[in-house]
Amino acid sequence: MGALLSVGIKQQDGTYKNYTIGVNDDTNEWGKNVSIWEQQTKEEREAKTPKSYCGNGKVVWTDGTVVAAEWQDKATAGAAKKESDLPF
Length: 88
What we know:
Elements: E1 3-10, E2 16-23, E3 34-38, H1 42-46, E4 53-57, H2 74-84
Antiparallel strand pairs: 1-2, 2-3, 3-4
């Protein structure tokens, strides 16, 4: 698998539903290399619970690079920004 993406989509009631998007390095017999499913908990993954697939597709453009995002805590992200604003 080439990459996994985690996406939260806002629902009509204001809550977010989390999904996982998988981008494969190879295409299948229909020319697809992307699939999306409802995000699973660690326990569901360990129990091998079947994924609830929502759809599939294909990559239509890429610059050839996929970079993993770094997680930042909201409390420390603001503090880091303030420190970087200092003139010294």
